[in-house]
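Re-run with default settings, no changes from the original entry. Doing this only to confirm the output is reproducible before filing.
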Amino acid sequence: MNPSAILKKPLITEKATLLKGTSNAVSFQVDRRAKKKQIQEAVEKLFKVKVVGVRTMIIAGKVKRRGRTVGLRPGWKKAIVTLKEGDKIEFFEGV
């Protein structure tokens, strides 16, 4: 897999912003088949930073209803990447 196919998009949420400020960690939505080592190499290659650790979790899809019709949103994989002290990734600069 190439690095841009592994990392789908960054997660910009309140919790992710707090993690970025307190423990220098960045969250990404990643491909479900990606392993921790592949995620680490993709982040290091794309953003030119040193990764200290990677934590992954699979988020289950939510059940949604519209009237009588019941559907299921797809599940996805989330990765929290801890960066070396001094390294950072900026998604929105100057905001």
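The chain has a mean pLDDT of 93. Residues 36-47 form the longest helix (12 residues).
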